[in-house]
Amino acid sequence: MNAPDKQPHELRKDPIVGRWVIIAPNRLSRPQTVQDCPDHDPGSFDPFLEGNEDTTTDEILAYRDHGSAPNGPGWRVRVIPNKFPAVRVEWEQVKRGDGMYDKMSAVGAHEVIIECPHRETNMSRLSVENIREVLWVYRDRLVDLKRDPRLVHALIFKNKGALAGASLDHSHSQLMVSPIVPIAIKEELEGADHYFRYRGRSIFDDMIQQELAAESRVVLETEQFLVFCPFASRFPFETWIVPKHQSSHYENITRNMIEELGTVMKRTLQMLEVALDDPPYNFVLHTAPFDSQPLPHFRWHIELFPRINRVAGFEWGSGFYINPVPPEDAADFLRKTDIE
Amino acid sequence: MNAPDKQPHELRKDPIVGRWVIIAPNRLSRPQTVQDCPDHDPGSFDPFLEGNEDTTTDEILAYRDHGSAPNGPGWRVRVIPNKFPAVRVEWEQVKRGDGMYDKMSAVGAHEVIIECPHRETNMSRLSVENIREVLWVYRDRLVDLKRDPRLVHALIFKNKGALAGASLDHSHSQLMVSPIVPIAIKEELEGADHYFRYRGRSIFDDMIQQELAAESRVVLETEQFLVFCPFASRFPFETWIVPKHQSSHYENITRNMIEELGTVMKRTLQMLEVALDDPPYNFVLHTAPFDSQPLPHFRWHIELFPRINRVAGFEWGSGFYINPVPPEDAADFLRKTDIE
To answer: Which residues of B touch A307 (CB under 8 A)?
Structure first.
């Protein structure tokens, strides 16, 4: 275990647009230019492998076989603190202004969810029961972390492949819980609230209804979920998984929904992997802030984007994306992908 | 010249957050996974070189030596249409709804500014007179394009280096003018307007005052410009160039300001290149929409970010950035960089 750094990282707010960033100094004496990441070497040491528990930070939670001991073998899904956390629960909460600027200490939790005990790189190749346990672990961690009144919002995300930001190839996801609402979530909450107040309907319900009627962007439909490529996709093959029924907070998910979501996740990832030849990808779970009651206008959902094109700097700098693959073509390609 | 594609590209609006994207189908029959870009080969053919004018699209504007003919040698700065434009002036303007969704044809201009006739990869190595002419070309193109009532906003940007999205190494920048305001600009306009209405002061004035008092994030100060690393920098060494006096529209820039901005650009780029060992980088000029009068709350400025760390997918998906280099350290490092 690393001892907490003496100096807490800072959360700082951009005064113009209200976007929070984490200033998390690393220990490099001189800044390094980004290197192109080679693919991970499958022969390299795997700290996430069953049996190597002593090489990781101590576990926070694990689904274990009866009789197995913490931080030893016998687990199926295991949660540990990130070794280089951007936020930490140990830091004291300090909020203060600096003239016109706002900042606070980066209190929070940054955890790694190791999705399987064996060395598997692709979540889609895990058994559906295994994926369901991962989805249930997400829920368990949110329920636990929500009890800390300093913490306001949770991001759960996956970086798959070196090009998508993963530093290890063993299938894993991450969780970052902090005292702020990330700007992309804040904008969704505001946009969805505006729509609801104006029309008295959930924008997610309207979107699902229109996508089902149009059919052209639908990838997969089950009883409780719709998978589709959104109308204004920023990235080629951007794919959303949205529950059909109202639910703003992921942590309120039921066993029954997890059953189905496990199947949906596996099939969606299989389609993307087969169609795009095992691309690097990311997904981010969007869920409502902890400190809100169930919201009628917002719905948790998963946004998935393969990294198949390079995003130029002007797109970052302006939020104005050029997408070379229409979502109708992407959905058609995914639907026609043979995954069995 | 390419004939306009039969099917106009589409601008589509995300119904939740209001972000416009350009859906610009390419001709690939099958999506390709991103390849790591090797550095450009300095021995490769350079279509932007003086003498190779017949290999590019026809010029829109060039600053030429007396007596030289269009599309031949004798120019100092040259503007041509992008060979693969995301938007086109030739397309008919069609705006329509699709159920709950909004879309329009991608009318606009997508141009390339070739910054010098010789093969130079780094803008900072151009003479200061040359840089001033580039900055004046930006102004000229905005003044011209503003006359088209269909066009609402201009982005001027540079992708330097393959990793930052450049496809050619000859120093160039780009311009994209379209009927929409990119979301990052819209958010700045709204945030700055809110601040002005609440406090009766420009947020840019307050920021400049505080940065000058604090000193720690200042990189360079001249009579009319302040260069600093912003308090809530998203990226290591993110650097902004902001005019000290109120001016919302870049196209209203004066000869006198261009004189000084040329010097400021050259020095800032030199510092970044020396400090970070010639990094890939991007800059984006943020300016007010064409259809507004001079705005007291908004100020045009240039945001510059070297690409020295890889941005993980969750950062894109959430807008929640982790920056490993505090802006105070970045500014200190830049100030101490010996550029002569």
So the answer is: 34, 313
